[in-house]
Amino acid sequence: MAGFGPHNPPAVHLDPALVKWNQMTVNRHKYFRWTPRTAWITFAYAIVVPAILGTAGYMTEGKWDMRGKRRGDTISEF
Question: pLDDT of 14-47, one tens digit each?
């Protein structure tokens, strides 16, 4: 039959360090804990970065019109 087992060992031996790393990434959710560092990183990527991008987009809305411009025309509309 196909597959690995006690009577059908794999043809290539796997690197134990890679197997350990794979198991760590598969089971990462079991060992996650909220610490000040993980809370700050989550806050930064979930709230601060979108707020900065949203503010930048709101402040530059309508200032540049790229459609219908010819060589020598200015891009800014303000």
Answer: 899 999 999 999 999 998 999 999 999 999 999 9
- Non-local (6+) Cβ contacts of 76 within 8 A are 63, 64
- For 54-65, b/e burial (b = at least 16 CB within 10 A) is eeeeeeeeeeee
The four Cα atoms 54, 55, 59, 60 give a dihedral, to 10 degrees, of: -40
Q: How confident is the model at residue 2 (pLDDT cuts 50, 70, 90)?
A: low
Give SS3 for 73.
coil
Q: Under 8 Å CB-to-CB from 4, ≥6 apart: which residues?
A: 10
